[in-house]
């Protein structure tokens, strides 16, 4: 392709060197705004000439850079900073900069068939699964032009809860399908990642004393889209359970080493569209993740549960009388979007009340995202969906699962910490963090650093980090080895017959990890103390103690790994919505996966495991939603979400990220049972919101389904800058804005006492003014609604200031209905 070939037909021309000013060279791609159009990217070759490549836009994927080969832009990704463009201006949502990641498509990619999801909105009421599948085949045959190739290409048809299919397509075929009548979106099948018992007591839901509606709780069905389930876990014992509720329409699929369901675990299915041929085609959990999340949400009480005596107590779920339905959509540690959509398709039709999904990927345009699509159709059916926020903290702009009809959950601590201390030969004791099940056989072992044990024959390996083959086996044999922080040092050292491992991590590292060998994690400062001790004597010694649990006085806090906001897809919606326990959570596990996740080496197969991640937080919120729903079975998902958010416990203010990390705060399920007021949102309100952010009538008609014709002009325009009756208030600004003013319209519904009066109380940081009109709301009866307006005004006094926050609370003698208020200004990184 000649240089001039980039002109004319291409919507934008960009030189890679210009896009990635910090990285230099060619490589991965850059960030600019394209909506399905191709992009022409020019790269300079070694001799200075320009060559052109085509690139395909995949929507608003943010904020992760994609880099091929050696990834020279890893430093950029670590800082979560991305070069940004707004083009064309008419496509900028809410005047914010959208960050779009695209990948360069070489000629070979143009001729390679890959799975694409063809999403066609709601399922036609008048059609059966069979007739929809036939229509899918006809559409595919028409596009490809070959009946045989079309048959071979089609992988799966959706149709139980929404309409669509999966097929192996060439890029130009995918592009043709995008323009076919009835097609809402076509997007590549991406692979998503898993976001990997004291927590309920910490949330003020003790086993005894918590008010419960056990009859309705037993009719609650929690669906989990995850790695499957281990049915033999004691957490799913069905003693005392009657048959499944009559509304249950699901099934239990047998196969492989899956032993079957019972009256507690009432359903187990799987989707294997994206699974490798070596996967076990059954709902059985081979990784432990799905069993852990399911037992966290709804496991029955099991006394004396522990991990080799660590964390001993009663393990239980938040709604232990509820039923569990497991949908295996993840295989080998990854989850394809086509399987994820199939899981939603099954769960919605089967009759679940709540769905928990501890899976995430880079945010995209709303309806090119399987999580967004699945959750939207679940919401339409009255199903509450809790999703994990992601594990890429503490960096900002890393939050996942950002659609307003999802409840996005960050991870907090509880008041228990697992410590595995180190005692040095000089008498100093260091509080390490780990789940170390090994007891020391000696009082002291020789201690050496990776740096001092370097393998002289491998000078280019990083011995200080104990990289593979970087250490001398003779020098580390029988010794505790001190390494600088990274992953899998225990795997590297496993066959070197070491006595133990001490890993020095960043100061904010707070995850109690499990190691293949005796090991613990210390902070960077503590690591420096250890290193100084090693270098101060010729006979340094130490011992690593078995893990014990201690009480944390500063709990709760947001876990270091929990992804932070803001997000740019729906920029004036604050995400995450809320936080829940996700640090050091003890719950059920699969006997097919070892403690450390390395079954070939690690033979510790346990009933319970201590794990951390926003994966662990999401089922806490799913259970809390089910708990609230047992008292208010007719409430919408948005009303339940509002109750959880407005009654949450505010987190300690951190000047670095504040509510960008915690949203409304830590869930308080028993308080959410009686919130006083709720901010409700129905499907029509979401349609008006979608109209506001630029979706057209055709798109909405396909999305909603039915015979009704949807025109944005027929709906009342949304009021306020965000266009949605959301329980939190958020404003995003461009970097050059210093003064601001924004208006928000809200409606609350009285779900408390018939007659009630609420007064507004605002708290705000310096530089932020929050005005509420009217400042008093009076209610004469239940379910009565009242509207009010919030006006934000303010000024950023310093060029480096980027965050102002406050809160609005509606209060009476019994209730306090609190909404966080956050104003964020994007400050571009200094390259």
TrEMBL record:
- Set out the biological process GO terms recorded for this chain's protein: proteolysis
Transmembrane portions of the chain: none
> Which residue ranges does the record assign to the Subtilisin-like protease fibronectin type-III domain?
724-823
The residue ranges of the Inhibitor I9 domain are 116-195
Swiss-Prot/TrEMBL keywords: Hydrolase, Protease, Serine protease, Signal
Q: Does the keyword Lyase apply?
A: no
Query: Which Gene3D superfamilies would you find in this protein's record?
Result: 2.60.40.2310, 3.50.30.30, Peptidase S8 propeptide/proteinase inhibitor I9, Peptidase S8/S53 domain
* SUPFAM superfamilies hit by this protein: Subtilisin-like (SSF52743)
Limits of the Peptidase S8/S53 domain: 218-656
InterPro entries assigned to the protein according to its UniProt record, in alphabetical order: Peptidase_S8/S53_dom, Peptidase_S8/S53_dom_sf, Peptidase_S8_Ser-AS, Peptidase_S8_subtilisin-rel, Peptidases_S8_3, S8pro/Inhibitor_I9, S8pro/Inhibitor_I9_sf, SBT
List the molecular function annotations (GO) for this entry.
serine-type endopeptidase activity
Entry-linked Pfam families: fn3_6, Inhibitor_I9, Peptidase_S8
Catalytic residues in the record: 226, 289, 615
As recorded in UniProt, coiled-coil segments are: none
Q: What family does this belong to?
A: Belongs to the peptidase S8 family.
PANTHER family recorded: PROPROTEIN CONVERTASE SUBTILISIN/KEXIN
Protein name, entry field: Subtilisin-like protease fibronectin type-III domain-containing protein
Question: What is the species of this protein?
Answer: Mikania micrantha (bitter vine)
């Amino acid at each position: 392709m000649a240089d001039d070939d980039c002109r004319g037909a291409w919507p934008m021309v960009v030189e890679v060197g210009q896009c990635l000013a910090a990285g230099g060279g060619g490589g991965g791609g850059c960030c600019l705004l394209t909506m399905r159009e191709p992009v022409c990217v020019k790269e300079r070759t070694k001799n200075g000439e320009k060559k052109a490549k085509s690139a395909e836009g995949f929507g608003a994927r943010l904020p992760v850079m994609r880099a091929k080969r050696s990834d020279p832009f890893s430093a950029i990704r670590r800082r979560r900073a991305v070069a940004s463009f707004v083009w064309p201006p008419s496509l900028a949502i809410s005047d914010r900069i959208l960050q779009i990641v695209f990948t360069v498509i070489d000629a070979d990619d143009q001729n390679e068939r890959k799975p694409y999801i063809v999403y066609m909105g709601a399922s036609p009421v008048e059609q059966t699964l069979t007739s929809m599948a036939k229509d899918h085949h006809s559409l595919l045959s028409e596009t490809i032009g070959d009946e045989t190739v079309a048959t071979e290409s089609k992988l799966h048809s959706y149709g139980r809860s929404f309409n669509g299919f999966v097929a192996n397509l060439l890029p130009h075929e995918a592009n043709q399908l995008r323009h076919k009548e009835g097609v809402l979106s076509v997007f590549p099948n991406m692979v998503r990642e898993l976001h990997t018992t004291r927590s309920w007591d910490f949330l003020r839901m003790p086993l005894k004393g918590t008010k419960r509606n056990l009859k309705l709780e037993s009719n609650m069905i929690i669906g989990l889209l995850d790695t499957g389930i281990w049915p033999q876990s004691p957490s799913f014992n069905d003693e005392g359970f009657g048959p499944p509720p009559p509304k249950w329409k699901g099934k239990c699929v047998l196969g492989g080493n899956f032993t079957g369901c019972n009256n507690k675990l009432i359903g187990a299915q799987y989707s294997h569209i994206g699974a490798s041929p070596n996967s076990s085609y059954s709902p059985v959990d081979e990784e432990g993740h799905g069993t852990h999340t399911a037992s966290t949400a709804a496991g029955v009480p099991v006394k004396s549960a522990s991990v080799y005596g660590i964390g001993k107590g009663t393990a239980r779920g938040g709604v232990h009388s509820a039923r569990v339905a497991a949908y295996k959509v993840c295989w080998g540690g990854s989850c394809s979007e086509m399987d994820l959509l199939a899981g939603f398709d099954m769960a919605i039709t089967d009759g679940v009340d709540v769905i928990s999904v501890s899976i995430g990927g880079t945010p995209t345009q709303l309806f090119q995202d399987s999580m967004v699509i699945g959750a939207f159709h679940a919401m339409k059916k009255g199903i509450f969906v809790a999703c994990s926020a992601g594990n890429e903290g503490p960096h900002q702009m890393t939050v996942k699962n950002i659609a307003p009809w999802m409840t996005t959950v960050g991870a907090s601590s509880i008041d228990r910490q697992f410590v595995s201390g180190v005692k040095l030969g000089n008498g100093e004791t260091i509080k390490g963090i780990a789940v170390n099940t090994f007891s020391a056989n000696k009082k002291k072992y020789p201690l050496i650093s990776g740096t001092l044990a370097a393998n002289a024959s491998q000078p280019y390996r990083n011995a200080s980090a104990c990289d593979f083959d970087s250490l001398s086996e003779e020098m580390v044999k029988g010794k505790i080895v001190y390494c600088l922080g990274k992953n899998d040092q225990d795997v590297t050292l496993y066959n070197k017959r070491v006595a133990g491992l001490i890993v020095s991590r960043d100061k904010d590292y707070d995850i109690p990890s499990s190691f293949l060998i005796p090991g613990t994690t210390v902070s960077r400062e503590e690591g420096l103390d250890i290193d100084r001790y090693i270098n101060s004597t010729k006979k340094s010694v130490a011992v690593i103690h078995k893990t014990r649990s201690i009480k944390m006085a500063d709990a709760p806090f947001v876990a270091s790994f929990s992804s932070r906001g803001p997000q740019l897809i729906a920029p004036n919606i604050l995400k995450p919505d809320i936080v829940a326990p996700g640090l050091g959570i003890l719950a059920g596990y699969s006997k097919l996966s070892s403690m450390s996740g390395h079954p070939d080496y690690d033979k510790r197969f346990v009933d319970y495991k201590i794990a951390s991640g926003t994966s662990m937080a999401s089922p806490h919120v799913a259970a809390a939603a089910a708990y609230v729903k047992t008292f208010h079975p007719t409430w919408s998902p948005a009303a339940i979400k509002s109750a959880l958010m407005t009654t949450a416990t505010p987190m300690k203010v951190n000047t670095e990220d504040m509510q960008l990390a915690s949203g409304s705060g830590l869930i308080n399920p028993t308080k959410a049972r009686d919130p006083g007021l709720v901010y409700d949102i129905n499907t029509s309100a979401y349609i008006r919101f979608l109209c506001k952010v630029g979706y057209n009538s055709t798109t909405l008609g396909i999305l909603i389904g039915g015979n009704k014709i949807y025109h944005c002009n027929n709906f009342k325009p949304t009021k306020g800058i965000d266009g949605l009756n959301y329980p939190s208030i958020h404003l995003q600004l461009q970097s050059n804005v210093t003064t601001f003013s924004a208006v928000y319209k809200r409606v609350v519904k009285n779900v408390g006492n018939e007659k009630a009066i609420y007064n507004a109380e605002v708290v705000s940081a310096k530089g932020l003014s929050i005005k509420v009109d009217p400042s008093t709301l009076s209610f004469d009866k239940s379910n009565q609604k009242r509207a009010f307006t919030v006006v934000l005004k303010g000024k950023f006094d310093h060029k480096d200031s980027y965050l102002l926050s406050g809160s609005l609370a509606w209060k009476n003698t019994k209730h306090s209905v609190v909404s966080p208020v956050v104003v964020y200004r994007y400050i571009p990184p200094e390259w």
